[in-house]
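ok so i was messing around last nite and threw this chain in just to see what happens. nothing serious, just curious
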Amino acid sequence: KQIVSTADPTSVGDLSYIDGCSNTVVIPPPRNGDPCVNYLHFPPRINQTVHTHPSIRIGYVLAGSGLARTSNGDIPLKAGDIFVLPRHTKHCFVTSGETMSLMVFHPDSEGGPTDEHNPMKLRTLL
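result:
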């Protein structure tokens, strides 16, 4: 007998994020400081804490709907929308009765190996 899960595997990310939201690194940075892409999941009735990022964020709404609340006003978001948050923009995401899932491009990162700490150098013995 085969057991098949009915849960949507993209219904949550595998890493915790702000205020009960979750994320997954979809395209990790090849090295520390390089660009990456994250999947973000926002549960229903979330009102995220206001925060900023030191670089631009470009997002695509995969599913659901919500708002990007910014100091310049609310940006309504629904599946298929693309949005841009300039660097240092104070913002938060808000959902009502449904979830919202985003794919977000980060032009920089604080993850990934460094030039000195990469698999080739660390696994080469002289």
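not much to say yet. Residues 1-7 have pLDDT under 50 and may be disordered.
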